[in-house]
Structures are given as C-alpha cells and as structure tokens.
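Retro notes (design track)

What went well: tokenization of the new backbones is finally stable.
What didn't: we kept losing track of which sequence belonged to which structure.
Fix going forward: every design gets posted as structure first, then sequence, in one message. First example under the new rule, 558 residues:
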C-alpha cells in the first residue's frame, strides 16, 4: 500500500466528508432546488421529533420547510448538549456546558450558523494565537509558550511522531481524497482501515506505531496528556482507533471557532427562525409558532398502535399518533426514560442501541471581574496566567475574554472519563475549590479566587437522567453497532412493524462529540422521513438515501 501513488491532487478544504459515508451534506442543504418534496396529501401532517437538541431542531426545521408539521418533544430544555448557561447578572456572558469549539470542517453545522447570522471567532485552544499563551504542567514541571516551538524539543518530537504515526495509516492520502471529494479513493483507503482498526484501541495505535516505538514511554505519556489541537487525548486511549482517525482525518481537532454569545443560539435560532418559502405553511411560520411557543413535554412511551401508526405518550399522559417519529435523545434513554415497544426495532439494533458507550465529562466555570490573566508578571514578562493543560485533576483550563468592560470567564476545569468522575459526587463550590487548589500549585502567585464574581456553574452530563453521558465514545469492536444505527434510516428492507421510527443524533453519528455528526444524521433522517411519506428529492439534488447504494458504509460480517 505504502508505495502506491498518492491519490488525487488536493483541491478544496478538508471537511467532515465521510470517511464512512462520503455524502456532501453541505451541498445538499445549500442547493437552490431544496431538499425535495412531499406529496400534498401529507402536507400539514404531524411528525414527532423527540428531543430539541441540534439534531432534533435541524430535522424539525427542514421537515417544516417540506410542508409537514413537526411536533417537537423536549424533556429538559431547548438546545440539548449545546447548552449555554448565562451567568446571573452578566447579560450575554455564558458558560458553554456542552459543545463549545466547532471545527470549520463542520460545514453543515456552519450552514445553519451562517443562516442565523451568528458571529464566530477563533477558540482559545492550547498554543494558538487566540489563547495568547499556554502553560503545560506535567509531573510538577511547568512550561510556558505561545506556540509549539517555544516548548522544549520533547514536545516537537511528540508532535512529529504523531504526524508520522498517522502517515502509517495514509493520513495525507485520505485528506487529499477528502479535499478532492474523490469518493472512490476515499472509500478504498478508509475501507482498508476499518477491519484493521475497528478492534484496536487508540493506545494500541500510538504504542505500536513505528514513529513512537523509536521514542520513550515519556513521549507517549506526554502525547496522551497534552495531545495537539484540543489536549487531554489519553481520556480517549481506550476508544476504537477508527474514531480517532475520523477526528484527525476530517480536521475536527483543528481550526475551531466559538459562537459569540453561546452555541445554544443555533438550536434556539432554528426554533424561532421563520422558514423561507416553506411548502404548505404561510410565510413567517416557524417551529415556535407551530408549537404555541414551547415544545411538548418529555416523552414517556412509544408504541405501535392497532392502526399501524406510532403512538407517542408524553410525561403528562397525552398520547398522539404519528406516521413517522424521529428519536434524537441518547439511545440509552430508550431503555431508561422512555418505555419503547421492543418490536419497533430489530433485536440486533437494540443490541447496538444498548451497547453504545458514552464518555463522561465535567466542566466548572467561574465569572471573573476582568481578563486579569493578561496582566504581565513584572518578574518574568509573561502573562500571569495562561490556557493551561495539566496532568492534575483540572486537565484543561480555558480563558475567555469577553471584550472591553465585560467580565471574563474561566473554565477552571474541562475533563473527561476518570477525571470527570473525580468531580461527580462534589457540589459546585467544592469543585471550584478543588480546581483552584490544583491551579494554585501551577500559579502560586496568582489569587484567582479574588477575581471571582457571581455564582460558579458546573455540569456532569453523566449525572443528568436526560443524557447519562456526554457523548458516544466507541470502543473496539463497536463499528458494527455504529453501522447498524447509522444505516437505520434506509428502511425499505425493514418489516412494516419496524418502519416509521427513525433515530438521529450524536450517538448515531460516526463522529460523536462533534456536532457536525449530529447534524448529518439528522439530515439522513429528513431524507428517510420524506421517503417514508412518499416524497422524493429533486433530480438535480439527490439526497443521502439516493446516494446510499453507491457509497454506503462498509458492512463487516457478523
Ligand atoms: C461536554 C461536551 C462537549 C462537547 N464539545 C463539542 C465541541 O467542542 N465541538 C463539537 O462540535 N461538539 C461538541 N460536543 C458534541 C455536541 O454538543 C453534540 O454532538 C450535539 O450537541 C448533540 O446534539 P443531539 O441533538 O444529537 O443531542 P442532544 O443535544 O442531547 O439532544 C437530545 C435532546 O433530547 C432530550 N431528551 C432526552 N430525553 C427525552 C425524552 N424522554 N423526551 C423528549 N426529549 C428528551 C434532551 O433533553 C436533549 O435536549 C460536545 C458535547 C458535550 C456534552
């Protein structure tokens, strides 16, 4: 393989185009012909959408444009895991509890960001210009830098080893195929990696790579603790390597931006935004106007009715019947929060839904009087505090300057897995104290507490019964489960009792923990529901289901 010529010359940018299902979702949703049409007899017909996160609201918005009446159910609050919690008393200043940094390769997500006219700016990731300065604190040693080259050579060696290790999986060739949207080459390269890496971990890949084999254990350890791009990669070490390949090959870990004022504005904007020229509905119709302002309550039960329709019962006992239902909440909730009739899904799909594995994540934020971290230490000439990566329990500390005259925000700690579990039983005040205690050891001269104003904000997604975890993190051997879930929107081959219920969202996606995957699965579901209701795409703008026979994700034998 290594001696084969490089495929296609690079052309466009790297986007989240495949690699499992290389369909151009961004082109589909921006095409002037629209997504398709649904027969007039179904116009105004109700379709249930369970969950008002980004995947539910993208689907509801697009279905409304197609002329059906989405009925959105939400158990908690609009936005789901794009939750921007305002600090009391500080207007417009938020803590990003879920998604906060969005790679520019997320072109379908940005389609909606742009449609809503939202502003974005570079996210202050480690060693980026937006962060200003970065401190890496490992085993009690503290390193300060503005870019990678300011750090000791060990860090450059680690970065180079990672780049070389990725080439062992033909990283550049895959990225070139993505840039060129060369589906044939991309599928050939990717489908070669799937069976070889599905059952092997990220740690296995790094430790067994030729590039890291030449280096010390310390290099591997530093790679895990610092990573490059977003930091803290050792939390992902037990995950299937395929998941990491997807992240790096589609540039999820680079060129990330934040949404000014909070990412929650995206789902909230879709909720309020009038659909331009919708089929069937009068001008000015929005999801909010179709719902009298608020979604319906959380769902308690889903079952097939005697007449073949799907009955959805909400938390207050009201049941409504639908020709189609889209479920976008985490799939575990179908066995914990929602009584879901077993015959609605094939047993093999149930296995996939239940075996899906979530990662834990915790964040704790404080509001501070001003971005004091930019003050210069007269002794060293450095910023008094920096974006910080550490092996202590805080793991990642992020600093947000909200502009002149505005209070600053510090994400004292953003952690995953075991580090998130350390915080799980603690109340917010103790979490702040634990984080301040760790940071004091890195910045002994800085009195962070003296700058805190307002009340701190914290989250542990695994402690919330409406989520049970932050996002999917596929384990080795999970490719088949992912394939079953992802492929479920193609329903022509299903027995009638399993048709009409669709799934979408982060845990159906190939790129969990990245919002683009949730959006793309939601668009698959829109195609599935349109097809289920007898509709079709415009010939000039085929959709994901039309392309499926040619580019479907690889199926591994059971
Ligand atoms: C800590 C964290 C950090 C992240 N960081 C990033 C990032 O930096 N960049 C990025 O691109 N992505 C990031 N993500 C991923 C991104 O936030 C998700 O992929 C995306 O928001 C998931 O959207 P969704 O619609 O699939 O699910 P959700 O947002 O979970 O929406 C599902 C909705 O269903 C609701 N629900 C649950 N039970 C019921 C019920 N019984 N009835 C009705 N409704 C119900 C829930 O309340 C929820 O609102 C992050 C996620 C987390 C948690």
């Amino acid at each position: 393989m290594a001696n084969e010529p490089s495929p296609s010359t690079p052309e466009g940018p790297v986007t989240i185009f495949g690699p499992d299902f290389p369909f151009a979702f961004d082109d589909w949703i921006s095409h002037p012909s629209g997504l398709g049409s649904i027969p007039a007899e179904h116009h105004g017909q109700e379709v249930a959408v369970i969950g008002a996160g980004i995947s539910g609201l993208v689907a509801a918005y697009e279905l409304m444009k197609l002329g059906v009446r989405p009925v959105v159910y939400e158990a908690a609050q609009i936005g789901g895991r794009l939750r921007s919690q305002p600090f009391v008393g500080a207007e417009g200043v938020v803590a990003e509890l879920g998604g906060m940094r969005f790679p520019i390769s997320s072109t379908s997500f940005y389609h909606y960001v742009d449609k809503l006219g939202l502003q974005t700016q570079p996210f202050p990731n480690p060693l980026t210009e937006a962060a200003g300065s970065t401190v890496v604190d490992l085993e009690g040693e503290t390193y300060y830098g503005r870019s990678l080259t300011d750090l000791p050579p060990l860090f450059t060696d680690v970065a180079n080893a990672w780049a070389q290790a990725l080439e062992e999986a033909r990283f550049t060739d895959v990225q070139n195929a993505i840039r060129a949207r060369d589906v044939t080459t991309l599928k050939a390269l990717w489908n070669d990696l799937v069976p070889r890496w599905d059952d092997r971990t990220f740690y296995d890949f790094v430790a067994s790579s030729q590039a890291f084999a030449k280096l010390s254990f310390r290099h591997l350890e530093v790679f895990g603790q610092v990573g490059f791009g977003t930091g803290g990669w050792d939390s992902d070490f037990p995950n299937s390597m395929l998941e990491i390949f997807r992240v790096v090959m589609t540039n999820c870990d680079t060129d990330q931006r934040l949404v000014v004022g909070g990412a929650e504005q995206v789902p909230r904007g879709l909720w309020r935004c009038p659909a331009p020229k919708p089929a069937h509905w009068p001008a000015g119709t929005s999801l909010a106007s179709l719902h009298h302002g608020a979604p319906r309550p959380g769902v308690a039960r889903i079952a097939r009715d005697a007449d073949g329709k799907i009955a959805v019962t909400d938390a207050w006992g009201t049941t409504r019947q639908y020709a189609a239902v889209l479920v976008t909440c985490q799939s575990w909730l179908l066995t914990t929060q929602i009584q879901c009739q077993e015959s609605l899904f094939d047993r093999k799909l149930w296995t996939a839904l239940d075996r899906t594995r979530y990662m834990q994540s915790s964040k704790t934020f404080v509001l501070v009087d001003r971005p004091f971290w930019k003050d210069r230490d007269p002794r060293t000439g450095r910023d008094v505090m920096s974006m910080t990566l550490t092996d202590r329990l805080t793991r990642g500390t992020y600093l947000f300057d909200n502009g002149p005259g505005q209070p600053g925000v510090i994400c004292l700690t953003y952690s995953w897995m075991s580090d998130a579990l350390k915080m799980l039983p603690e109340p917010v005040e103790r979490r702040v104290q634990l984080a301040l205690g760790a940071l004091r050891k890195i910045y002994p001269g800085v009195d962070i507490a003296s700058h805190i104003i307002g009340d701190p904000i914290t989250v542990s997604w695994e402690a919330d019964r409406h989520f049970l975890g932050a996002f999917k993190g596929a384990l080795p051997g999970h490719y088949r489960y992912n394939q079953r879930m992802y492929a479920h929107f193609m329903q022509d081959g299903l027995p009638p009792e399993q048709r009409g219920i669709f799934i979408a969202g982060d845990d159906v996606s190939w790129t969990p923990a990245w919002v683009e995957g949730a959006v793309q699965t939601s668009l698959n579901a829109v195609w599935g529901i349109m097809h289920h209701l007898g509709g079709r795409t415009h010939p000039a703008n085929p959709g994901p289901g039309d392309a499926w026979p040619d580019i479907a994700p690889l199926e591994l034998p059971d």
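Added context from the reviewer: The longest strand covers residues 408-416.
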